[in-house]
Amino acid sequence: MEYVLNTLRNLADQTAFTYLTPGNVIMIFVALVFLYLAIKKGYEPLLLVPISFGMLLVNIYPDIIKEGGLLYYFYKLDELSILPCLIFLGVGAMTDFGPLIANPISFIMGAAAQFGVFAAYFFAILLGFNGKAAASIAIIGGADGPTSIFLAGKLQQSQYMGPIAVAAYSYMSLVPIIQPPIMKLLTTEKERSIKMQQLRPVSKLEKIIFPVIVTIVVTLILPTTAPLIGMLMLGNLFRESGVVKQLQETASNALMYIVVILLGTSVGATTSAEAFLKVTTLKIVALGLIAFAIATATGVLFGKLLCHLTHGKINPLIGSAGVSAVPMAARVSQKVGAETDPTNFLLMHAMGPNVAGVIGTAVAAGVFMAIFGVK
After folding, report:
1. Calpha distance 22→273 (Å, rounded)
2. For 105-121, what is each residue's pLDDT tens digit?
């Protein structure tokens, strides 16, 4: 009888119930909320489903992210900046830079949105973070998860990588909730109803030359951006050259989805209650939201300025797409514009600032690396 009782006791001790804390329960609830938003509401399910499931796993079985655990090895690929660069390769292979080439002023709107990144940097300094940590947190304002992970790794801020990555990906997913109130607050109904002229056709030659020129110019000025910008533009060259269809399809489909699974689950697995439920984490999440809100606002305000300078030819709503949540931010610009006038189609116009924001956020990361002498 004693043997049976000892066996049952040993089995009970091996269950996750023995070390389930109130914090773990809270994080499991958060994971379930994220799953609901991804599955029921459709908020970036490709990101939120693996992230939330990784969050669920680590708060039931913490050893899965510790050395020797399955997701530990996935996470090492994040720390080494391998997965973020591969994500950029896939993004480039899926992205049409035509709207940006057709309307080069979109570059400026994408750059204007980066103001949120640098504003958040100074806020983070004021809250007591050191320079490198502040830079790693501030880049969340670009709503670009891979760049956030890349910069945190390069600046050796691994202790903050989990909260930074979760905040960045969460805000990317929650763009449809966060951006519209800011956009409506800063624009009038008349401005939101502005219809823009159709973009000019972009030649195949222009599309082929574009990634080559961007790579040369940006990496000459900021060599540290070469891994991100290089992979982004290589993927785009696969797409536009028309001679490596197999590579383009692999980068934009099979490889992209494999990397999303690895990156998403490993990022989610960094959110154990022990590591995540801290005052520092709350500061990071709050700073990320501030950065993202400022980035959205400055994009819209710059759009308003261009609207005035062009005598009403530019709809300010497209400025909000300057954050690099591709293509969700552009879709939000379209949605808000269509709410005012259902016949207004802003999607292609918004894609210009949107893809410019991807480049802009990578450049902002390069600026921070240059400031701190990171190669």
Report:
1. 9
2. 888 888 888 888 999 99
Residue carrying the six token digits 């499931």: 53
59 residue type, one letter: N
Q: Match 């035509």 to its residue by tokens.
A: 98
Residue 202, Cβ density class (10 Å: 0-12 exposed, 13-18 middle, ≥19 buried): middle
How many C-alpha atoms does 59 have within 13 Å on its Cβ side?
A: 27
Count of beta carbons in the 10 Å neighbourhood of residue 99: 22
Instruction: Please give the full DSSP string across 116-185, using - where no structure is assigned.
Output: HHHHHHHHHHHTT--HHHHHHHHGGGG--HHHHHHHHHHTT-HHHHHHHHHHHHHHHHTHHHHHHHHHHH
Question: How many residues are listed for the chain in this entry?
Answer: 375
The C-alpha atoms of residue 246 and residue 262 are separated, in whole angstroms, by 22
Query: Which helix (H) or strand (E) is 270 found in, with range?
Result: none
Type of residue found at 46 = L
pLDDT digit string, tens, across residues 254-287 = 999 999 999 989 988 888 888 888 888 889 989 8
Report the alpha-carbon distance of residue 104 to residue 109 in Å, rounded: 10
Residue of 110, 143, 123 whose CA lies nearest to 292: 143
Tokens of 51: 């992230």
Residue owning tokens 């040369």: 216
104: preceding bond cis by omega (within 30 degrees): no
268: which residues sit within 8 A by CB, 6+ positions away?
31, 50, 51, 52, 53, 54, 55, 56, 57, 58, 166
Which residue do the tokens 């005052």 mark? Answer: 279
Q: What is the pLDDT of residues 296-324, one digit of tens each?
A: 999 999 999 999 999 889 999 999 998 87
In degrees, rounded to 5, the angle at the alpha carbon of residue 150 between the alpha carbons of residues 144 and 153 is 140
The 8-class DSSP code of residue 322 comes to G
Alpha-helical (H) ranges within 40-140 are 45-60, 70-79, 82-94, 98-102, 106-112, 115-126, 131-138
pTM (two decimals): 0.89
Report the C-alpha gap between 11 and 6 in whole angstroms.
9
